[in-house]
Amino acid sequence: MTSPAGWPRPGRRALAVLFALLTITVPACGTELAANPLGPCGDDARTAGGFSELEVLLPKALGADGRAPDRVDSGRSCSDVALGTLKSHGVTELRFAGATWNAGGSEGTVIAVLATPEWVPELEEAWVEEFYEAGAEAGKKTDNIETSRPTIEPAGGVFRLDTLNDLSLQTVVTWEREGLFHVVIVATDVAPGKDRAAHDARVLEAVQAATPAAVPLST
Fold it and tell me: 106, 170, 203, 206: most buried, per Cβ within 10 A?
């Protein structure tokens, strides 16, 4: 099978944890948060307004047309499956908020902000990187997994993971700023007439949209 110029070749392993049709739950660093409105940490849960103090930090629009997200919600991850490798570091609860922009097919963008409650160990950058790399390696159809540490302004130094899931190029970018971890996830279909430059432009656009929202939670 031949891929358009600039794209990695399709492969055999999948990265279900990475994108999962824009419904991913992801790790965060420790900070003080309100009491859990979703009840004691047991089953994983998410809903609009679950953690409003996190949702308010998300960008309200994306792109030159200022399009509002198709979905905004928040929640917490408690199960071993959702926690993944973070469980081995003593993380027992992750809280997150995410804004999703669907772009048709398997294309879309997620911008998320994440935090752990004060009784959970504060995340380290190495743990976040391990979480995503382990998810990629555990998939069934993902190939060409590449990681890098570029500088993307105005976020600054970031961790970036790129992979091809069947014919979908998927990128995760994470960075810490003012006590919070931020995550951008972008998926672009590999098809005639599309190129890598357009995907990278979407990644940059999402990071730029996410960065102004990177402010500390009020205590």
Answer: 206
Helices (H) and strands (E) in the chain, counts: 4, 11
Q: Do residues 133 and 91 lie in contact, with contact meaning Cβ atoms separated by under 8 Å?
A: no
How far from 200 is each of 66, 94, 137, 160, 197, CA to CA, in Å?
Answer: 19, 29, 23, 11, 5
59 falls within a domain: yes
User: Which structural domain range is residue 29 located in?
Assistant: 20-213
User: CA-CA distance, 209 to 219, in Å (whole number)?
Assistant: 24
Distance CA 147, CA 129 (A): 9
Domain-located, residue 140: yes
CA distances for 197 relative to 130, 137, 170, angstroms: 27, 25, 13
Q: How many domains does the chain have?
A: 1
Query: What confidence tens digit (pLDDT) does each residue in 145-168 have?
Result: 889 999 999 999 999 999 887 778
- Is 0.85 surpassed by the pTM of this model? no
Looking at the domain assignment, is residue 13 inside a domain? Answer: no
Give 109-129 pLDDT, tens digit per residue. Answer: 999 988 888 888 888 888 888
